[in-house]
Amino acid sequence: MNIPAPRPALLRALLMPILLGCGSVSTMAMAQSEAPSSTQPQTSDQIGFSAAVVEYDSKTETVTAKGNVIANREGYSVRADTIVWNRSTGQVLAEGNIRSIGPDGDVAYGDKVELTDTLKDGIINNMLVVLADESRLAANRGARKDGVYSLNYAAYTACKVETADGCPKNPTWEVKAVKVVYDPTKKRVDYEGARIELFGLPVVPLPFLSHPVGTKAGSGFLVPSIGFSRNNGIELEQSYYWRITPNRDLNGSVTAFSDAAPLGRVNFRSLDKYGAVDLTAYGTYSDRISTSGVANAVGSNVFRGYLEGVSRFQFDPYWSFSASGRYASDRTFLRRYDISRDDRLRSTVSAERIGDRSYFSLAGWAVQTLRTGDPQGLAPIALPEIDYRLRMNAPLVGGTVQLQANSLAIARTEGQDTQRAFASAKWDLRAINGLGQEVTFTMLARGDVYHSDENASTLTAIYRGETGWQTRSIFATAADIKWPFVGQAFGGTQIFTPRVQVVAAPAISNLEIPNEDSRAVDLEDSNIFALNRFPGYDRFEDDYRVTYGFDWALRKNNFTADVNLGQSYRLSNQASIFPDGTGLSDEASDIVGRSEFRFKNIVKLTHRFRLDKDNLAIRRNEIDATIGSRGTYLQAGYLKLNRNIGPTLEDLNDREELRLAGRVRVARFWSVFGSTILDLTDTNEDPTIFSDGFDPIRHRLGVSYDDDCLSLSLTWRRDYQPVGDSQRGNSFLFRLAFRNLGV
After folding, report:
1. Cis link prior to 384 (omega < 30° from 0)?
2. Which helix (H) or strand (E) holds 148?
3. Which of 534, 482, 472 is nearest to 507 (CA)?
4. By CB neighbour count within 10 A (0-12 exposed, 13-18 middle, 19+ buried), where does 377 fall?
5. What is the pLDDT of residues 468-488, one digit of tens each?
6. Which of 61, 81, 294, 402 has its CA 20 to 30 A from that of 512?
7. Whole-model pTM?
8. How confident is the model at residue 715 (pLDDT cuts 50, 70, 90)?
9. Taking a C-beta distance cutoff of 8 angstroms, is the pair 219, 211 a contact?
10. What is the domain partition of the chain in residue ranges?
11. Which CATH superfamily is 48-222 part of?
12. How much is the average pLDDT of 488-512?
């Protein structure tokens, strides 16, 4: 007979004799309305039932549960419309809307399940296993033994099988195999006789595929990448990922080429309590070609490679240590194997202490030049560089005082050596007066000591300084006034801020001091109001000057605009130490400005410029624009430097360049992308070159597909700048990345 359901606690008490085999009744039916999470934990020899109706047949020793049945034992649970448990044989048979959940979160679905009374071993028909990361395994028939799934003629995918509207869809890719084994404890899927089907077509055979599942990475081979380059021919890269420990891993790869020897790469990463380390090494044997195009005299098959690494450690809230290093065996290795286009490699080391009001740094750095014609012996090595700063409240007058002590030693194996030390004190006071003006007063006092030798080896005369010991004193004062006006305009709020700055600095013996860090002078909106418009410390702008300009801003709901303009005027006839063409050599400086406009997230336009004070000729014209959405956009960049300096000063060459890049989404997941870089510099701007004013540097064009589980792209690139064995020509790269299967 059927008995109406008692309260849950009473139900568990009535079921206990059945589960333990104590006592017998002919028929019993009960219902339970409470969620399964409210049931008490079962002991190892019990199966806990929750169902609308439970019947027990003492003759056949079977328990039949019907109606939203949930059975639990030792972390395993089974939900079904009907569950029949034969207590004599230990067989558990489940039918209808079956959902079997393992202790690791994997869920198996099926039409019919035959299990043992441990609930973790059995056979499932029409099996679907949803793993913890929502990837899926499916087969007509599968088995689970000790919690490990074995499926014959199965399929796996990490793609969604439903649209956003809940309609079924075919996965973009799936792995089909003769046999699939999934171990929830190891979080790993192993295949025999596997192949990857892409858009329903078999494309990649993988006879011994294995990969991890879940959020944690696991060791294994990654999906290979294929490409073609003019330098090395057809390229095939195969990588292996080794998860050494939870906080350390290693990625090694070998790239085979049709026209060159294989290239090896190893990347090691480590993260611990105090910091992280990332190290990468490349190596191969190949012919080394000099930048003049002649084979290296050492012969063929010489070792070539590249090392790079970075690390940072935070030992406590104040002290940290960081280091980075880059070294290439020769000047064209990085370009030939398309690792980097950098023409200088910088290595640094630094120990820092950052306090509430103090800063200390002990650092060093070195440079390896990869530029054609640059002697490595002239590249600087700085060790050590010491900097200490202390900020405190100024007594009596208010404001803040910053004390600084700095020293630097620069050595070269075949060039000028320079040592520097200075101490300075800087006072700043900012106040708002009754008219709403923001007034800032600044005073600076500094004393320098320099020593240098082999000065004649520096090619540019104004950078050399005098040989031996030199001293210098610097004093400067400044007053800066801003007066913002706020009002309504163009349907929004505008802020107009006139600004005036007065700076006084007595004459300084600059040219007697070596110039190591103040060479690349470029007057622009970011430094027009600076106390010293030279970069670095080796040059300090003296004389008396007034600088004036304004900032204007407009704020609307979907639109913002920012514009600033500035110019300075020297108040004495003292000769300027700025070279001609920098915009600061005459009494009146050039006019500099910047404007930036934004409309929602669709348009961003930035324009920087410098106008000649005499004839308003454009000495600097820089435009960066981004138009479009995330899927379809156009990026454009244009730079023209016409500073009229001439070739006598390094770091200040004129140039003209155009950069274009864009992406067009042609379908939901498909897009076409491309970019180009054009050198528009001609001999009028740089007499040392032979360009006709339209010299392409690199073109790139490709097509890509990206959805929730697949990323593939085919890219064509053409390089036009040959250097040594890095030749001009076409390159092709095919990239295929599967979610959960590596990249």
Report:
1. yes
2. strand 148-157
3. 472
4. exposed
5. 999 999 999 999 999 999 999
6. 402
7. 0.78
8. very high
9. no
10. 48-222
11. Lipopolysaccharide (LPS) transport protein A like domain (2.60.450.10)
12. 94
